[in-house]
Amino acid sequence: MHSSPFISDVPVAEALQAWYDACTAAGCPDRVAADLVPLEDAAGRVTAEPVWATRSSPVSDVAAMDGIAVLARETHGATPTTPLHLGPESYVVVDTGDPMPDGFDAVVMREQVHYVGDDAEIRSAVPPYQHVRSIGEDISAGELLLPEGHRLRPVDLAAAAAAGATRVLVRRRPRVAVIPTGDEIVPIGSPVRRGEILDTNSLMLVAQAREVGCEAWATEIQPDDVERLSTAVREAAGSADLVIVIAGSSAGRDDYTARIVSELGVLAVHGVAVRPGHPVVLGAVDATPVVGVPGYPVSAALTFEIFVAPLLAALEGAAASQRPEVTARLARKLPSVVGMDDWVRVRLGSVGGQVVASPLPRGAGVLTSLVRADGLLLVPAGVEGHHAGEQVSVRLLRRLPEIERTIVAIGSHDLVIDVAATMLRGADPTLTLASSNVGSLGGLVALRDGLCHLAGSHLLHPATGEYTVPYLDEMMPERDLAVIRLVHRDQGLLVPPGNPLGITGLADLGERDLSYVNRQRGAGTRMLLDQELRRLEIDPATVSGYAREEPTHLAVAAAIAAGRADCGLGILAAARAFGLDFVPVAEEPYDLVVEASSLEDPLLAPLWELLKSADFHAEIAKLGGYNTTETGKRLR
Amino acid sequence: MHSSPFISDVPVAEALQAWYDACTAAGCPDRVAADLVPLEDAAGRVTAEPVWATRSSPVSDVAAMDGIAVLARETHGATPTTPLHLGPESYVVVDTGDPMPDGFDAVVMREQVHYVGDDAEIRSAVPPYQHVRSIGEDISAGELLLPEGHRLRPVDLAAAAAAGATRVLVRRRPRVAVIPTGDEIVPIGSPVRRGEILDTNSLMLVAQAREVGCEAWATEIQPDDVERLSTAVREAAGSADLVIVIAGSSAGRDDYTARIVSELGVLAVHGVAVRPGHPVVLGAVDATPVVGVPGYPVSAALTFEIFVAPLLAALEGAAASQRPEVTARLARKLPSVVGMDDWVRVRLGSVGGQVVASPLPRGAGVLTSLVRADGLLLVPAGVEGHHAGEQVSVRLLRRLPEIERTIVAIGSHDLVIDVAATMLRGADPTLTLASSNVGSLGGLVALRDGLCHLAGSHLLHPATGEYTVPYLDEMMPERDLAVIRLVHRDQGLLVPPGNPLGITGLADLGERDLSYVNRQRGAGTRMLLDQELRRLEIDPATVSGYAREEPTHLAVAAAIAAGRADCGLGILAAARAFGLDFVPVAEEPYDLVVEASSLEDPLLAPLWELLKSADFHAEIAKLGGYNTTETGKRLR
């Protein structure tokens, strides 16, 4: 069989079915073998046969209370006014759990017995079987205790033991071999030279396989050499129940995997109508399923979730763990390509009693989109996308109670927000402050639309020279909003280390041929630049690079560090992060805008406390470029 | 300090706070120590400090596609009709992920390049930075990647590696020592003599502790000896971060733990207003938290969930994992004691698009109530209970998608239902058939009220001599119901092994002084008995034991096996489970009643298939006492 040179667009369900069929045809086992293991080692394993009780629990009638065992009919006539004395032959002292002595059928609680000499005095008659646990009350011998294909939990182990088991037949953990490939890939911990890429994917895939209960390991990194890679795949197929080959992300590199799989065994699918994850390779070699995952990290992670995890669950004979779903309101418009299942990472927050989903960056290379994601939104192949405000169903990556303990901040980015997030979490691990960086104006729009708890803003109002507050009157005159000062901070020009061009300020943009890197429209920093250019009477059209927009301070710093621009406006902390020099231009306030009611919201209370704390001010001071004189002050 | 001889009723939140305060006062550390561990060993561990990026990803601008790197401004003018030739000095071939060569700022995809000799021909102009991933697109050096107190997932490890980390500072796994106590407790696997109890609790508690990420072990079983137990607690406190003492379930036994804790350290709480779990002991010894859990298995499991798990999470500096909740309709009335938090185990099913919760047996000794539970319903101390049909909030023990793949059967119990459940699950691990045994009439009522998918019934209609169908016309005349025959089965008298009293049939109940064990009203077997007694002209009032009701065939068998009765009506399989003899009395049909629409419901389709399969008939034949001639036949 020959590999096709083209990547096809097989729908996901079809691709999975074709893979399963190919595996069956290639002689791959349906299930991994089963082992009889002691109960204490069986937690998390999957039963390979039903567990039937061989023993009842309790094994006999037992006392359910501390007290005395009596014969119920001998207690007739006892009342508070006519107490009854039972002689020593008519009762037996019992503790909870003791077998009922022969000839007795009820228990009188210790607290209701008074001893008069050797006699027990009782003050009420009792019915038969009072405070007696019947044989088999919990488990009857012969009953079905646990089904086949059940992942064993702690209570299951205890019940199985009570039902007479000491060992259970469970599936062996599936073994997963991960083969990283590529001449440019180097192990984590080695020095990375230009053009080399760290092997973060095998670290992740091995951990993903272990998380779903497998034994997993990564082989050595294989160079782009068909022969060596073929040998590695064969070896792995001989020792594992499933082989993952991490291809480079290029089509050419994937073809290696597809070609090797088709030469050594059966290639079922090359290319699925899903993104990220499109160039996935599915097949079988030597009666072992093989999957080629794309090299982009988000693609690799999602390929595991969509294709590998279900097959591993099937090998264990268990249901694949499905993520719970939640209905959320989409924070903004989400276009999607028709013909492809589109897996969009989203942040979730509970604002005003409703769950809100904000899409994260969609690039397959942006692993942090998955780190920051609270959920996955699948836009199916047949859907063109969603409108802002639409109700969508999101698969949860975090649990809802955690999401409900998340303060959602949308707006301008500032490292002080990160510091606050860190300190809040350090004091209370249940509290998360999650920030999305869309610029000051974007944050105010999100607040207006009920998509966040707070908006970080440093938006200069040119007509008044004031910051932020005038915009609130324009955008949301009817809303009762509060504005809390976070900090004053220095804005300045970020320039390469040592400031080789000797840049002294924004006036240089009008006088010299400097290339500039800009922030997006709606960003406070962009407003500041435009205001300053007007003041300096510089025409933006004459500024080289004015049209190139970056979404954050750090992205501006990165562009300058990469040599793509000579300067850009930003904050000192961003310059420090990339080892750049900083030419101060202005001091500006950075404020938090919230609904006035949020000042009383228990979720946000720790934040308001934090703003007043000396520890917080000290941490900000360490960053440099900030002034905390007015931190925590309510401006409106 | 002396222990109080009384068990108090401290509300849960107060008890937890008192325990935390006592631990702090006793010098217990707030957090376990932190270790720097390699990323590959860090999955599931909790960060002890935030992870800040020390490296950007990508580390430089890189090609995002396979193709050629070009200088965008040199491509101006290229169109499909006026292709442009770039000489070898004007382009560089790049693969995805390659660093952008100096002096080039855009990539043209491989598919859009034609080579003419050494020249590259392109047919459209490209903007700067097309198909270029910017330095820091994923991660910018200096940004906050992961907060403190974050449990590391596979993607986090990969992102941390990409951000320059090779090791992370994480909390050590908390160490938990479990001390089983009691003269009557014997290890799992040992022969159990009369009055002895298997140590299933330490197996469960150790597994629970491991499930939440701890290192855990059980010590030897300690006898009821204050001195030896004191030594064991001290030793455990010296090597563990938390000590669990499993008390016997009696008040007297608990006092041992409370007394020891107060003598060796600080006793904070003895007795909490929660059930199951009331007599819990909370304190600290030698700067180590100690908890005494009650011996009843459900109490032990819930005490772990309510008290131990949150403290262990706090020691790791993480948020305790909170169970997701779902709103469900309560299947029947649920009374509850005021003044106690009441944790009720419930089965869940999705019937007619609504989640329905059926309370399970509430005894603290019924561990299978927890095994079978899909959720926990907390009835708070201030609430008297709930009405049938009320909407309640349930904490999920299974995921909702699994619950939605559950066929809910309520009605009469028959082992053939268990066999069907086993075979359905064996063929499809995602499919569960969950049955609750409430008798035939109870099942029909549940079906009427929309609480189940199917009702198992063998309800004799005395006036017509027919089974089940006449009741449907009486109870639900307006409903479109289908009746499917499951089996015919033998009913008979269960009698002790060897039938020592020589019982020959129900007529003996009228002629001899036999003690009988009955089924509850509404059970088909009870209807059969009453019908037969009428036919034989036996007055029920003369039958000894007629008033004692058991809920299942197996419970009847258990009562006879325990010597509490001479005989009872039931099925052969129940006799076999308890090694009893069986005196046949009648053959009766056992049918499944469903909404007619259920015959087309994809969820139930595998069941209808199964009823027709020869394998299923063969399995039933193995049970004995069944006839499958009409199995699967639709009667109505």
How many individual domains of chain A? 5
Pick out the low-confidence regions of chain A: 1-6
Work out the helix count of chain A. Answer: 17
- Examine the secondary-structure arrangement and name the CATH architecture of the largest domain in chain A: 3-Layer(aba) Sandwich
Query: Structural class from helices and strands of chain A?
Result: alpha+beta
Q: What is the C-alpha radius of gyration of chain A, as a whole number of Å?
A: 34 Å
Organism (chains A, B): Kribbella sancticallisti
InterPro entries (chains A, B): MoaB/Mog-like_dom_sf (IPR036425), MoaB/Mog_dom (IPR001453), MoeA-like (IPR038987), MoeA_C_domain_IV (IPR005111), MoeA_C_domain_IV_sf (IPR036688), MoeA_linker/N (IPR005110), MoeA_linker/N_sf (IPR036135), PBP_domain (IPR024370)
Enzyme class (chains A, B): transferase
Keywords (chains A, B): Magnesium, Metal-binding, Molybdenum, Molybdenum cofactor biosynthesis, Transferase
